[in-house]
Each structure stands twice: as C-alpha cells, then as structure tokens.
Amino acid sequence: MLDLSVEELCKKTETISIDIFKKNFGHKVEYNRRLRSTGGRMVFPVHNGKVVEKDIFMQINPRLSQQQLNGVIKHELAHFFIFEKKGIHRENDKDFQKLLSTIKAPRYSPLKPVHHFLYVYQCLKNDKHLYYRHRKINIIAMRCGIDGGKLKMIYKKHV
What we know:
Low-confidence stretches: none
Structural class: alpha+beta
Radius of gyration: 22 Å
C-alpha cells in the first residue's frame, strides 16, 4: 500500500517524466482504488470525436508497493508521450514496446488478477480432472467432459 499523498504522487510523476523523457507531464495524477488487476491507466477523454488535451489525467492503483510504483508511472508516461507523438495506439504496437524496453518499464501489470472460484469439482475416474466453476452444477446430470466420469464437489466457498 502506498502512503504518498496525491501531491507527492504528482511530484514523483513529474520528476520521473523529466528524468526519463526530458519533458513535463503537466496533467493531473490521482489514485483510483477501483482498479483491481491493473497498476494504473492514462485517461484520454473524448469529446465530439477528439481527445480533450486539457482533461487528460493518470490514475494509479493505491495497492501498489513503492517498488512497483516507479515502473507503473513509467509505463503510463510512455502511453502519454506515445500519444503525443502518434495519437491513439495499442499496447502491442512495436514503437510502444520499444519505448518500454528502452526506459526499462514493465510491459504488464505487477498486480495479479484474483480469481475466486466458488465451486471445485473433481472427476471420479482415473485422471481426476478438476473443474473450477462460479456457479453450482447438478452433479447428477453432469459428467466429466473428458472421460465421462461422475463428478464430486471437493470445494465450496460461501460468499
């Protein structure tokens, strides 16, 4: 968890921007606690089909550690400066990937998505296949899709 205030986060973003890209970022940076599996995002608001430059801002996940924060800020700044250079782009564009490798920014989020399976079923035949499900299934009517064995519920989480 980060213990930086929003002002300190803005200063940190500006210093990283000047150190690495030799340019000012000059936009708002804020925390967004609703971000789950992503470290941050650049928001490019669109009005009448055009991006409104003055309303661009960066959102950072407050669950990041201090070590992860620098990499996420570099990644989001790379989005911003590629946008300034060529406009709308995608994560898998070659120039974006090349920029990430030159500034040593992570390509993927350091946060792992959390998968909550409420039910786990196991096949009762030889291979003991596992099935992870969010919804309960009728084990009398359903069979293993691989070898046709009966299923048994081995885990149930109450939510």
